């Protein structure tokens, strides 16, 4: 409650002062720019465009100062541009394209294709020799030593 | 393993020593290079279980897709947070990225752990950065409640897990996953064995979350800032699934009967949470409940303990991680512009943001499991294995799929179609950063269609 009041009060006092002085505390956007006038007139409260909202963004769109704003850095267009370039290059060209090519050319994942080929080879071999495709017992039963029943 | 872990730890000096101007550029670049290096884990050339092994960490076909997803997510989180964290003081920005990085480190060590106690410690350790992110950077007063629910639900589930693990350690002599799969099952009286079984799994069921213990999820996902929502939905829920799959190996044969109520609860949860989604007014809450539904299907697939169930669970976890994270990013773009999550306030966005409407459309299609995306493939495998376990489950899963499609369509139509209200025609255009963020989510899903064997796990 107190924080809300403390945020509203400076704006209110500024509004009263500015209307009393007959001037507006506007930012440096030239009066002739239609978008600047539209922004100012569209706002419900007569708040100065230089005031910040709760996220610290200026009420004026960053696209006004920098029409090529990429969303990375609000004030410095050089950093904004290079952040965009690096993010795109490393994200798409390097990781997705180069990384994707690397993944594509990885050898037989989990030996699944080998297993298929080996199975087909063994089937062909066993069918040719007349052996069953697979024996019932995995281990040779004669090698298994069981305790005789009745013993503890 | 260390070739990814050490660069992630070195991200801490990067964060604190970079000049404020280049902080976000450097951390984005560094984390993308880590993501590139993590792709080497996908090489699985032999049929043996564990690769990239050292004494404490190793990867196997179950943990590898989740590890790659985790490493991929850090740059995405940094990209997503840049706009709303940037205006703050520089030390706060550094702290935020440091929390994301510490979460990343714990997650890599959790998924790579070969010993279950290490996994447990990292599982618990991930709670702390997430709690700080939710309670410090959340936007509404409800964030405190959300953090408390998140922390205490997970802790209440995981303390029995600690006891169960210590019991297992005493009986088997080791808790190394490499060895434990071959060890003798625990010898306890029937009641003790049941409680031990429950103790092993409840922590992960709460984390997934299973319907019934899911209440922390809508709160935590909604109140967290975008990076928190992303990491929660994409990775932290999967920690639960991963933990369950690891523990399942040791819990036989008791799981045959005991899994029954949990499978039913999970399937019922799909229906219930899907129906809740259809009545939601809050966009993030809708996406959060849809996560509960999808993870209910994953829980069902894991508890069934068939190879198809396990494979389907891994596939669905990866696909859902990317799709859900994409949806949270899209919801955040709306939130940053209108400062509201109410869906009726931001309708008809297609007219003013046409390209973003494409991303909304694709993300929603992924969410409703459109073929040939892996979301459908995972769901289909789980549904099939559930059907072979009991034909009656098709009623629940079929209805669940139908409801999933309805609420995904509802989300798309509510946000994109319809008349655009006058109060949002003046919104800021979409940033290049936001387009990049969504494409970096959606391109991997589409690419996974071409090589799904990366996600099949060790069962198939």
TrEMBL record, chain A:
UniProt entry keywords in alphabetical sequence: Electron transport, Membrane, Mitochondrion, Mitochondrion inner membrane, Respiratory chain, Transit peptide, Transmembrane, Transmembrane helix, Transport
Record GO cellular component, one term: mitochondrial inner membrane
Region (Disordered): 36-65
Compartments, record wording: Mitochondrion inner membrane
First-listed, main subcellular location of the protein, grouped into a coarse class: mitochondrion
TM stretches of this protein: 86-107
The UniProt record lists the keyword Mitochondrion: yes
Short name of any one Pfam family annotated for the protein: ESSS
Annotated function: Accessory subunit of the mitochondrial membrane respiratory chain NADH dehydrogenase (Complex I), that is believed not to be involved in catalysis. Complex I functions in the transfer of electrons from NADH to the respiratory chain. The immediate electron acceptor for the enzyme is believed to be ubiquinone.
Family per record: Belongs to the complex I NDUFB11 subunit family.
Subunit: Complex I is composed of 45 different subunits. Interacts with BCAP31.
Protein name: NADH dehydrogenase [ubiquinone] 1 beta subcomplex subunit 11, mitochondrial
Source organism per UniProt: Onychostoma macrolepis
UniProtKB/TrEMBL annotation, chain B:
Subcellular location field: Mitochondrion membrane
Broad class of the protein's primary localization: mitochondrion
Residues annotated as domain NADH:quinone oxidoreductase/Mrp antiporter transmembrane: 113-404
GO molecular function (one): NADH dehydrogenase (ubiquinone) activity
Family matches, as InterPro entries: NADH4_N (IPR000260), NADH_Q_OxRdtase_chainM/4 (IPR010227), NADH_UbQ_OxRdtase (IPR003918), ND/Mrp_TM (IPR001750)
Transmembrane segments: 21-42, 62-81, 93-111, 117-134, 146-168, 195-217, 224-243, 258-279, 286-304, 310-330, 351-370, 390-413
Bilayer topology term: Multi-pass membrane protein
Record's catalysed reaction(s): a ubiquinone + NADH + 5 H(+)(in) = a ubiquinol + NAD(+) + 4 H(+)(out)
Keyword Transmembrane helix: yes
Keywords: Electron transport, Membrane, Mitochondrion, NAD, Respiratory chain, Translocase, Transmembrane, Transmembrane helix, Transport, Ubiquinone
Enzyme class: translocase
One Pfam family of this chain: Proton_antipo_M
UniProt-listed Enzyme Commission number(s): 7.1.1.2
Domain NADH:ubiquinone oxidoreductase chain 4 N-terminal: 1-110
One of the record's GO cellular component terms: mitochondrial membrane
PANTHER family: NADH-UBIQUINONE OXIDOREDUCTASE CHAIN 4
Protein task: Core subunit of the mitochondrial membrane respiratory chain NADH dehydrogenase (Complex I) which catalyzes electron transfer from NADH through the respiratory chain, using ubiquinone as an electron acceptor. Essential for the catalytic activity and assembly of complex I.
Similarity annotation: Belongs to the complex I subunit 4 family.
Name of protein: NADH-ubiquinone oxidoreductase chain 4
Gene: ND4
């Amino acid at each position: 409650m107190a924080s809300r009041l403390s945020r509203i009060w400076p704006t209110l006092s500024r509004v009263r002062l500015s209307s009393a002085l007959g001037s507006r505390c506007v930012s440096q956007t030239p009066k002739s720019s239609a978008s600047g006038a539209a922004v100012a007139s569209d706002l419900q409260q007569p708040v100065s465009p230089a005031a910040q909202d709760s996220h610290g963004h200026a009420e004026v769109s960053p696209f006004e100062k920098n029409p090529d704003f990429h969303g990375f850095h609000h004030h410095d267009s050089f950093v904004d541009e290079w952040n965009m370039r690096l993010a795109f290059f490393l994200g798409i060209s390097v990781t997705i394209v180069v990384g994707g090519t690397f993944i594509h050319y990885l050898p037989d994942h989990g030996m699944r294709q080998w297993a298929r080929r080996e199975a087909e080879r063994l089937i062909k071999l066993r069918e040719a020799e007349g052996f069953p495709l697979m024996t019932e017992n995995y281990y040779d039963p004669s090698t298994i030593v069981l305790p005789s029943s009745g013993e503890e | 393993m260390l070739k990814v872990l050490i660069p992630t730890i070195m991200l801490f000096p990067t964060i604190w020593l970079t000049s404020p101007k280049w902080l976000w550029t450097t951390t984005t670049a560094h984390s993308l290079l880590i993501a590139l290096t993590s792709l080497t884990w996908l090489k699985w050339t032999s049929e043996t279980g564990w690769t990239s092994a050292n004494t404490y960490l190793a990867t196997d076909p179950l943990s590898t897709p989740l590890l790659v997803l985790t490493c991929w997510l850090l740059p995405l989180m940094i990209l997503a947070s840049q706009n709303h964290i940037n205006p703050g003081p520089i030390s706060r920005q550094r702290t935020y990225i440091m929390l994301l990085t510490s979460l990343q480190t714990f997650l890599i060590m959790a998924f790579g752990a070969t010993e279950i106690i290490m996994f447990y410690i990292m599982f618990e350790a991930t709670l702390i950065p997430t709690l700080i992110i939710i309670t410090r950077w959340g936007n509404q007063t409800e964030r405190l409640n959300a953090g408390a629910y998140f922390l205490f639900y997970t802790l209440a589930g995981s303390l029995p897990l600690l006891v169960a693990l210590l019991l297992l350690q005493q009986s088997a002599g080791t808790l190394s996953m490499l060895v434990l799969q071959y060890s003798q099952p625990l010898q306890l009286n029937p009641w003790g064995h049941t409680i031990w079984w429950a103790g092993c799994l409840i922590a992960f069921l709460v984390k997934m979350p299973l319907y019934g213990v899911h209440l922390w999820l809508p709160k935590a996902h909604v109140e967290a800032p975008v990076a928190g929502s992303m990491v929660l939905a994409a990775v932290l829920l999967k920690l639960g699934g991963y933990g369950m799959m690891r523990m399942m190996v040791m819990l036989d044969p008791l799981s045959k009967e005991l899994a029954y109520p949990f499978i039913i609860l999970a399937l019922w949860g799909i229906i219930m949470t899907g129906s809740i989604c259809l009545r939601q007014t809050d966009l993030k809450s809708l996406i959060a409940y849809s996560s509960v539904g999808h993870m209910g299907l994953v829980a069902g697939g894991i508890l069934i303990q068939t190879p198809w169930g396990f494979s389907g669970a891994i596939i669905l976890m990866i696909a859902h991680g990317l799709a859900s994270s994409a949806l949270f990013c899209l919801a955040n773009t709306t939130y940053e512009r209108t400062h509201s999550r109410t869906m009726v306030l931001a309708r008809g966005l297609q007219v003013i943001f046409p390209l973003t409407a494409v991303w909304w459309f694709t993300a929603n299609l992924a969410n409703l499991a459109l073929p040939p995306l892996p979301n459908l493939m995972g769901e289909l495998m789980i549904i099939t294995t559930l059907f072979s376990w009991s034909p009656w489950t098709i009623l629940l899963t079929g209805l669940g799929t139908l409801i999933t499609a309805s609420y995904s369509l509802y989300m798309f139509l509510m946000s994109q179609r319809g008349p655009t209200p006058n109060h949002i025609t003046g919104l800021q255009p979409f940033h290049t950063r936001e387009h990049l963020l969504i494409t970096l989510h959606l391109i991997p899903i589409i690419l996974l269609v071409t090589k799904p064997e990366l996600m099949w796990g060790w069962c198939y």
